[in-house]
C-alpha cells in the first residue's frame, strides 16, 4: 500500500514549519492542547520563560499567569474564548523591554480545536 502524495506533502510542510519555529529565538512560541497542556516548546520560549522543554512539556499553561489571574479563572477564559471565537489575545504592559503580547488561536483538527499559543517580547 502506498502513501498518498498529499500525505507526503503534509509531512514535509509540518517538518518545514517545525524547522522554522525551532529557529526563532526572539519570540516564545509554544502549542497547547485543548485542555491547556503544553505540547510543544521552541528555543525562544526557553529563553523568555526559563524552562527547558523537558521541564515544561505536559504542564498546564496557567503557570504563566499570576496567582490573581488564576483565581479569577483567566486561563479558563482564554481557552474558552479561543475555542469559541478562534482566538484570544492578552497584552501585558510595561516598558518596551518587558511588553508582552500573547494569545491563543484555535485551528480545526480531527480531534477538535487545538489552541496554539504564542508569546512575543521585543529584544
Describe what this molecule looks like in 3D.
Helix content is 38%, strand content 28%. By secondary structure, it is an alpha+beta fold. It has a five-stranded antiparallel β-sheet. Strand 1 and strand 2 form a beta hairpin. The longest helix has 19 residues, at 5-23.
Please describe the biggest sheet, giving its number of strands, its sense, and whether it closes into a barrel. 5 strands, antiparallel
The strands making up the biggest β-sheet line up spatially as: 2-1-5-4-3
Number of separate helices: 5
Assess the beta-strand content as a share of residues: 25-35%
User: Rg to the nearest angstrom?
Assistant: 16 Å
Number of strands: 5
Low-confidence stretches: 94-101, 109-113
User: What is the overall shape?
Assistant: globular
Query: Which range best describes the helical content: under 10%, 10-25%, 25-40%, 40-55%, 55-70% or over 70%?
Result: 25-40%
Helix and strand content put the structural class at alpha+beta
Order of secondary-structure elements = HEEHHHHEEE
Compute the separation of the termini in Å.
50 Å
Q: Average pLDDT, to the nearest integer?
A: 75
Amino acid at each position: 500500500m502506498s502513501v498518498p502524495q498529499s500525505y507526503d506533502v503534509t509531512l514535509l510542510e509540518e517538518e518545514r514549519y517545525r524547522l522554522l519555529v525551532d529557529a526563532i529565538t526572539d519570540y516564545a512560541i509554544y502549542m497547547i492542547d485543548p485542555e491547556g497542556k503544553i505540547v510543544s516548546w521552541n528555543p525562544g520560549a526557553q529563553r523568555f520563560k526559563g524552562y527547558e522543554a523537558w521541564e515544561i512539556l505536559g504542564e498546564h499553561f496557567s503557570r504563566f499567569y499570576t496567582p490573581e489571574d488564576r483565581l479569577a479563572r483567566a486561563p479558563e477564559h482564554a481557552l474558552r474564548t479561543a475555542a469559541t471565537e478562534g482566538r484570544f489575545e492578552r497584552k501585558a504592559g510595561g516598558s518596551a523591554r518587558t511588553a508582552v503580547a500573547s494569545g491563543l488561536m484555535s485551528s480545526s483538527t480531527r480531534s477538535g480545536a487545538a489552541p496554539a499559543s504564542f508569546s512575543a517580547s521585543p529584544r
